[in-house]
Design a protein that fits this description.
Elements: E1 3-13, E2 29-33, H1 39-50, H2 63-70, E3 75-82, E4 85-94, E5 99-107, H3 116-129, H4 131-134, E6 143-149, H5 156-162, E7 166-176
Parallel strand pairs: 5-6
Antiparallel strand pairs: 1-6, 1-7, 2-3, 3-4, 4-5
Organism: Streptomyces prasinosporus
Domain N-acetyltransferase: 39-190
Protein name: GNAT family N-acetyltransferase
Length: 190
């Protein structure tokens, strides 16, 4: 089995004023919270956004595992739609002591490079900062953090930095190289 050297960058914001929003893209782009926990829809987003960049950790989750995750207090999924079609998503998770992690963020391949990503990230980060306004069971947000890696899209790290995130850790590890799973097997060629 061949391995792949993967660099992982951890980034954070520690105040809502850290956010530097991107411009709103032209056209009919809307960001809407997916309020009804739907394992089918969440798995679709995960597989469709991450299929060509080797997101594999959730592919084996059962329906029950997806449902359990989506129903956890402080987990939210925000979806960008371009003219009614899902274009990408950001998934938030409230953690201890007012910390919110951006667990997943990205666009379906057909929507990349159209200025939707910066807007969706800006919107998602703002929702991380005001999460307690919608979820009284979680503490007010004091920190928003995420990690991205060298397997993610080529503009991912730059997008996070432009939105006001600061780097706080970098690691490099060898991982087994896996084929890109696509939203279904064989959708993308490596």
């Amino acid at each position: 089995m061949t391995t792949l050297s993967v660099t992982t960058w951890s980034l954070e914001q520690t105040a809502p004023t850290d956010l530097r929003p991107a411009a709103v893209p032209e056209g009919d782009v809307r960001v809407v919270r997916s309020e009804v926990p739907s394992p089918e829809f969440s798995r679709f987003l995960y597989a469709s956004v991450g299929g060509d960049i080797r997101w594999t950790d959730r592919l084996g989750w059962t329906y029950a595992r997806w449902q359990e995750h989506l129903e956890r207090p402080g987990v939210e999924t925000w979806v960008a739609y371009d003219r009614g079609t899902p274009a990408g998503y950001v998934e938030l998770e409230a953690q201890d002591e007012g910390v919110v992690e951006i667990l997943y963020f990205g666009l379906l391949p057909a929507f990349r490079g159209r200025r939707i990503g910066g807007h969706l990230l800006s919107y998602g980060v703002a929702r991380a900062w005001d999460l307690a306004d919608r979820r009284p069971e979680v503490k007010p947000t004091t920190r928003v953090w995420l990690h991205t890696c060298s397997k993610d899209g080529e503009h991912a790290l730059d997008n996070y930095l432009r939105r006001g995130f600061r780097l706080f850790d970098t690691t490099v590890e060898d991982e087994p190289e896996v084929a890109t799973p696509g939203p279904w097997p064989g959708a993308y060629s490596a």
